[in-house]
Amino acid sequence: MDDHLDRRRFVSLGLAGAATAALGTASALSGAGADAARAATGATAAPSAVLLAADEFDGPAGSAPNPAIWRFDLGGNGWGNAELETYTDSRRNSALDGRGNLVITARREADGSYSSARLKSEGTYSAQYGRVEARIRIPRGQGIWPAFWMLGADIGQVGWPACGEIDVMENVGYEPAVVHGTVHGPGYSGAQGISAAYTNPSGAAFADDFHVYGVDWRPDSVTWTVDGVAYRTVTRADVGSNPWVFDKPFFVVLNVAVGGSWPGSPDASTRFPQQMTVDWLRVYQNA
User: What is the pTM of this model?
Assistant: First the structure.
């Protein structure tokens, strides 16, 4: 098997205790194959981890992300955060680049409005526990808000924050060398989410290069990593008497927001278009 996997599908064996949907032919890389894939692409999962699912975003330049995996949130209602963009399913806002990457593009339109894309695996793939990672080069600029995150798959039944939210990586443009990881649930949502920040040791902006952002998600804990370095663990004890809502399947979200109550609005220094480039996204089951 190619050590880059079949790059147009999200292959799935199912995580322990998870409700998952197999897309394409169910298969996995493990042992020597997984080691080769990690060496080739810079993945940081432990050598004993089993690769359960992956999208490596191969395909012709300008083509849509795999529709068997990715669906779109659409519209411009502020998304509860006073965001300014309208999310679309246009190839102007999300497309493969022909070089093994997904590119999400935030644009300022001729009328002064903003457009972008928000992709999700809701209804196609969900995971419960494991190591979830993506190799991403984020965009930059005041008012730009890229994110890689997960929502409880039962959001349609219980709503937010009862569904739970795991923010694997968020960046607000006025902090170019800082990324954030957060969990949200009943009693610890929004500004009260349990959060931690990680500063690039080099001092460089995260937008300058690709980095691997991940979480090691276990029944009683969530640990955030950047380039394999763990910087915070939240445990069941940290939510106190509030519900721990992370023992169920979650789906993945990738988006670039413009504006909002946290990053603020773009200003004269912000250049458009801005792009988030995703090299790969993978789910491992740790030994």
Answer: 0.87
The CA-based angle 260-262-263, given to 5 degrees, is 75
DSSP letter for 23, please.
Answer: -
Residues with Cβ within 8 Å of residue 24, at least 6 apart in sequence: 6, 9, 10, 11, 68
The secondary structure of residue 97, as a DSSP letter, is -
Which segments of the chain are extended strands (E)?
50-55, 71-73, 85-87, 94-96, 102-108, 114-116, 118-120, 130-137, 144-152, 165-170, 178-184, 194-199, 211-218, 221-226, 229-235, 250-258, 274-285
Residue 133 is encoded by which pair of tokens? Answer: 């990672």
Q: Residue 129 and residue 53: Cα distance in Å, rounded?
A: 13
Half-sphere exposure of 272 (CA within 13 A, CB side): 22
Which residues belong to the active site? 165, 170
pLDDT digits (tens, 9 = 90+) for 31-89: 333 333 443 444 455 557 899 999 999 999 999 999 999 999 999 999 999 999 999 99
Q: Is the peptide bond before 266 cis (omega within 30 degrees of 0)?
A: no
Structure tokens at 57: 């975003």
